[in-house]
UniProtKB/TrEMBL annotation:
The chain crosses the membrane at residues 420-441. This is diguanylate cyclase. The keyword Endoplasmic reticulum does not apply. InterPro entries: Diguanylate_Cyclase (IPR050469), GGDEF_dom (IPR000160), Nucleotide_cyclase (IPR029787), Rev_trsase/Diguanyl_cyclase (IPR043128), TPR-like_helical_dom_sf (IPR011990), TPR_rpt (IPR019734). It comes from Colwellia asteriadis. Gene3D superfamilies: 3.30.70.270, Tetratricopeptide repeat domain. It catalyses: 2 GTP = 3',3'-c-di-GMP + 2 diphosphate. Its EC number is 2.7.7.65.
């Protein structure tokens, strides 16, 4: 650091730090440390700028907890400002990014929306576009690709109207990532390359490295491994000792995969690069990056036949995947990969029972993932977008047709009596249509009332037994597996007596929601009566049914209940699978007896035949 830099005023140091942040985080921290000693000399706006640059430096270095703490201090100070300003937008967006990087997408959305509100109140196009980019990124992270593309394309259009190369770079990067997740790698590459050029043009070396890293990953996806290696080597050659840990981690782990997957695969060299990547992993606070590292490392170790080391890496990955059901779609897929790899390791170690159990779990979770109707596949999203564009064109054509028809009608029916006649006819038609709509709605409500339990929203006893009997009959005919769970809430009478029936109803509904989240679309779930429920599981053998029952029991037992005098609610479950049963009632009775056995053995248990 030169003497001239040391002698600069706090304001001048702030300007230097802002410029330095584009290319060297280490020197930025040095400049900011000099400003810290002179904070009392700064205005509120200058202090906020200092906190923003410090938080940005922490974020660039992957220190998101420190970034969040610094931003909380800055946002408290920002309340002293007389009116909203752009710096508040910057702080809110950066606070959202810290939350996003620490895995709290809900909190991230909250801050992003607050920042966007401020930007809109200031009518600042650049800050509005930044807000849309942030929310668009959250959308694709949470598998809402339709919303992601709408938000990101809006930001892209705004950026195109400005001279802000940095904004153009970021809008291109995020669109590239969204299209990459949709499997449209050619379109993704176009955006990545545009982003790289914009970042280079604006002197943003670190952002350019990130864009180049995305380009390299895209090459790898397209199996152009030599091109990927060249891109990674370019980043390595232009990096320095202060290059952010996250960027260098991505470069070395990407290089490892390219070495592993290229035509002349080199697993040993790939592992060497993973060891280089591992040096950065402890300083990275991003949940998704750590997960990917341990999975990648385990995969390479498996191919090197280092099976015990593979299990160690798998265990680290599993610590980051505590609750499979609450994970976003892409992390659920990663979890399936980890379970599959574990089953292969057990098989190679001749631990066949454990290999079978892992494979059974994999089959169940894979079916659950693909049969969940609330999760649209990437292909469905793409078809939906194409369909909407076609619908839009059709609407435009229909509007033109309507205008022409209206013009024709005016010419044909100039006579007032004819117009009156047509008006009366239209009113009669509308009235009939309204009556018909009401009848159809009433019929639908009547049908729902006859099949749905009004309190919990699941099948009532009559509908449950009817659908289960049909599934049972089909299983007998096709010689498929078929299992039944009978679930009862433990000591439910005490809950009603202690808290009242209204709170008891709350418990019933919550137990239903927790249980339902464990099930597939093809499962039949309903209320037998009171606090007793039944699930029929087509194509599930006894072992799979026990696994599902244990998942339901654990999920409910782990739930934190904010109720007076109630800290835990548990269930007991009886599990029976189709054997020589002649009808559904016989099978249900067996499950019911096993439920009674679970109650007698201490409750909060699963008993099976």
């Amino acid at each position: 650091m030169s003497k001239e830099a040391v002698d600069k005023s706090p304001k001048a140091l702030l300007e230097s730090a802002e410029l330095m942040l584009k290319s060297d985080v280490g020197l930025t921290f040095d400049l900011l440390s000099k400003i810290e000693a002179q904070l009392t000399l700064l205005s509120i706006e200058q202090k906020l700028k200092y906190y923003y640059l410090l938080s940005e430096s922490y974020s660039t270095s992957g220190q998101f907890i420190s970034a969040a703490q610094t931003l909380d201090t800055a946002l408290t100070l920002a309340k002293k400002l007389a009116s909203p300003s752009v710096i508040i937008c910057d702080l809110l967006y950066l606070r959202g990014y810290a939350a996003e990087s620490l895995g709290d997408t809900s909190l991230a959305v909250e801050y992003y929306k607050k920042g966007l509100e401020v930007a809109e109140s200031l009518h600042d196009k650049v800050m509005i576009a930044n807000g849309l980019i942030n929310l668009g990124a959250i959308a694709y992270i949470t598998d809402d690709y339709k919303r992601a593309l709408i938000l990101l394309n809006d930001a892209y259009k705004i950026a195109a109207q400005t001279n802000d190369d940095q904004l153009k770079g970021y809008s291109n990067v995020e669109l590239g990532i969204a299209y990459a997740n949709l499997g449209q790698n050619e379109q993704s590459m176009v955006y990545y390359k545009q982003a790289y050029e914009y970042f280079k043009k604006s002197g943003m070396l670190l952002a350019a490295h990130n864009a180049l890293n995305n380009i390299a990953m895209n090459y790898s996806v397209n199996k152009q491994y030599n091109e990927a290696i060249s891109a990674y080597q370019e980043i390595i050659s232009t990096s320095n000792e202060h290059s952010p840990a996250e960027i260098m981690y991505r470069v070395f782990s990407g290089m490892a995969w390219a070495q592993f997957r290229k035509e002349e695969s080199d697993p040993e060299k790939a592992y060497e690069y993973f060891l280089k990547a591992e040096k950065y992993i402890d300083t990275i606070q991003r949940h998704d990056i750590k997960l990917q590292f341990y999975f990648d490392q385990a995969f390479v170790l498996f191919h090197l036949k280092r099976y015990q080391d593979t299990l160690v890496s798998i265990a680290e990955a599993e610590k980051l995947l505590v609750n499979h059901d609450s994970l976003p779609f892409f992390q659920k897929q990663a979890n399936l990969g980890i379970i599959n790899l574990k089953s292969k390791v057990y098989y190679e170690q001749k631990r066949f029972k454990e290999a079978y159990e892992a494979k059974s779990k994999l089959v169940f979770l894979r079916e659950q993932l693909h049969e969940n109707e609330d999760k649209k596949s990437v292909a469905e999203v793409r078809l939906s977008l194409e369909s909407e564009q076609a619908d839009l064109k059709n609407k435009l054509l229909e509007n033109e047709k309507t205008i022409n028809q209206e013009n024709l009608a005016e010419a044909q029916f100039a006579n007032k009596e004819q117009q009156l006649y047509l008006s009366i006819g239209a009113l009669v038609a509308l009235a009939l249509a309204w009556i018909l709509a009401k009848l159809l709605y009433s019929q639908r409500q009547l049908k729902l009332a006859s099949t749905i339990d009004t309190l919990t929203g699941i099948e009532n006893r009559r509908s449950l037994m009817k659908k289960s009997a049909q599934a049972f009959k089909l299983a007998k005919k096709k010689h498929h597996c078929f299992s039944v769970l009978v679930i009862d809430i433990d000591r439910f009478k005490n809950i009603n007596d202690t808290l009242g029936h209204s709170q008891g109803d709350v418990v019933l509904k919550e137990v239903v929601q927790l249980s339902e989240s464990m099930m597939r679309k093809s499962d039949v779930f309903g209320r037998l009566g009171g606090e007793e429920f039944m699930v029929c599981l087509p194509k599930q053998d006894l072992q799979s049914a026990i696994y599902i029952a244990e998942r339901i029991r654990e999920r409910i037992a782990e739930k934190q209940w904010p109720l007076r005098n109630i800290t835990q609610v548990t269930v007991s479950i009886g599990v029976a699978s189709l054997a020589s049963d002649s009808d559904l009632n016989t099978l249900v009775q067996r499950a019911d007896k096993l439920l009674y056995k679970a109650k007698l053995s201490g409750r909060n248990k699963v008993c099976s035949s």
